[in-house]
Batch of 2 targets.
Target 1
Amino acid sequence: MIELFYYMSPNVQKILLLLEESKLDYKLSVVDVTKGEQYGSAFAAVSPNHRLPAIVDHAPTIGRGPLGLFESGAILFYIADKCGQFVAVEPVARARTLQWLFWQVGGLGAIGGQLIHFRNYAPRAIDYPLTRFGTEHRRLLGVLDGVLAGHDYLVDDYSIADMACVPWLYAHDRRDQLDLDGLPHVARWYAAVRERPAFRRAYEILAEVAGGPYVANRSMLEVDARRILFGAHAVEE
Ligand SMILES: N[C@@H](CCC(=O)N[C@@H](CS)C(=O)NCC(=O)O)C(=O)O
């Protein structure tokens, strides 16, 4: 059984999409990052980076005891191998899947996360980061559109590469901040993934356990939560 430590976050949603596709046995354990639970010693033993997602596989295929893992890309890769789906075994397709997985974690997710932060959580609007991250995010979406032209998914069949990307588009979308004009291939792929039964189930589950998958903006966070999540500078007025 896999235990997924969760809060309302796109990086956690990636793992839930895969668990729902895989039909592996799993359970959810909340880590309330707005209260600082990511810094508790029990969670830190699994995720020394103090970030979500993290998992404990209580019955790993290899090894004697429970296996803890953090970093969404590594977790996706591990679970896909465990269930024997959503990552190719053949070395070239496998490497191409990892290529897009790393691209998402280091690019689309990291830059998109900063863009969401400066748009929705910063104490005030600051042009430079908004332009910097906005321009780079748009460029990355263009890269995605290029690879999806003529392909249903990023690498052959639906894979962990697609599952890594879609929750981040959704994070912008649900704030009405996703502009797919001029990106027809991304738009088609994004719509197709959201139609998958596992995608729907994952977001229904999140809505049920977390009362909704998102904290939309800074006004929804108490001052103490902002201080924990973003540092003391986040509460200046
Ligand atoms: N590179 C990491 C990023 C993890 C990350 O930043 N997680 C956020 C949620 S999306 C988090 O735990 N935030 C809590 C905090 O900042 O204290 C991954 O892909 O897992």
Note: Residues 91-120 form the longest helix (30 residues).
Target 2
Amino acid sequence: MAKLATVIGAGPVGCVLALLLRKRGYEVVIYEKRADMRRTEMAAGRSINLVLTPRGLRALDLLGLRDEVRTLTVPVYGRMMHSLSGELAYQPYGKDEREFNDSIGRGELNRFLLDKAEAAGVSIHFEAGLARLDLEGGMLHLEDGREVEAKLVFGADGAPSAVRESLAAAGKCERSLNMLPDGYKELLFPANEDGSYRMDAKALHIWPRGDHFLMGLPNQDGSFTGTVYMPNEGPVSFAALDTAAKVEAFFAEHYPDSIEVIGPSLGEQWFANPTGHLGTVRSFPWHLEDRVLLVGDSAHGVVPFFGQGLNCGFEDCAVLEALFNEHGDDDLGVVFRAYEEARKPAGDAIADMALENYVEMRAKVADPAFLLRKKVQKRLEGALAPRYRSRYAMVVYSSIPYHLAQQAGAIEAEILDELCAGIEDPEQVDLARAEELVAAKLAPFVSEHGLDLDF
Ligand SMILES: Cc1cc2nc3c(=O)[nH]c(=O)nc-3n(C[C@H](O)[C@H](O)[C@H](O)COP(=O)(O)OP(=O)(O)OC[C@H]3O[C@@H](n4cnc5c(N)ncnc54)[C@H](O)[C@@H]3O)c2cc1C
């Protein structure tokens, strides 16, 4: 008889995990708190856009779904910076156009994965939120009062995770939540009447303004989903922008060239769309014996500034699948322990790098010294790849564990400090010295950890 696996949460990670377990022959049941999003209207301003990157797409390869998902995405090849005076500056993401990210609506992706999960025989119960997991009795206590037996439980219930909280309440896991003092708000930038884009759709657009920023990612229908990130309280904050007139004046002052793109609905959208909160969840351990395992945001909720939260959750699933293949299904405690050992340092590293990137996206992308560094990095990638790849490339395009990419990035930062000192133009960089520094500092680390930079 097939073993029964219970997954809590039918978000993107829960669905991918359910599909992988189904493929291994498990009978899979998902309990999801919300109503079925395929049958309900999504509330305005809840249309988060994500970038999927090759790291996350590799999990979809295991299910043969990459190509189908990519029919729902818009490829973006770099960042387009909008200065206050409306000048545009483009920074490509990768070493060439084969390296790009895929913009997709989280809702669209989730609906697609729900369809796939059901078609594969996964049974999904909607409006069936978990209130508490009884670890002793192996019972789910649902919010509607039902009690259901569940001997093998996967927590894929996102950052607020009731599974993780049940582990914590029983003293089986420690967790922390650090909220950012900043929040976010989604705004729709509509398409032109003929369905065409109002901005270049091959880029993520960004208006970096120091303590706040606006960004926009393209959708397939010619619109962009914009997001404003700013402090919740204070002189420049969501709290301070409390009338439509103030919002319009703020955009006219700080993001003037976005006004025409967003159109007359700005003030209305601002008050209709909710302000979201952002935080970092860390927890440990992520498993209990052979009975409970946390995946995705329930284990490691990260702020969105590296665009890796979901990619990391998908990679959790891919790593778990590889460990199932290595150790078999007979002793899940062994698989779960190996998963946790592999993924915890990775989860911590991407949480740290995402927080660091917050400063990069708000402020540094407009700073000439930072831009010079980025251009020097590109020159080094052009001249020295595959001996040198940027930290960004390692995080986004490779499968190098996040913590090793972070450590390699720290070495690269030292190399760049020396190479950028006293120059104003990337053409002035001393490539011979760069070769020496890469050979002396980066190469030993790459070789010690067996990293493959030829991706
Ligand atoms: C503004 C923003 C931008 C982002 N951009 C990116 C990006 O560009 N790239 C990227 O990779 N990531 C991005 N992320 C992060 C990404 O959205 C998350 O990492 C991802 O959604 C996590 O997937 P998940 O399935 O683990 O959790 P979730 O998507 O949170 O899904 C959890 C599911 O569990 C359900 N649930 C919750 N509690 C219960 C319960 N008690 N019982 C049953 N079900 C429950 C929820 O209803 C939900 O369906 C972004 C996040 C934000 C906020």
Note: The first strand starts at residue 4 and ends at 8.
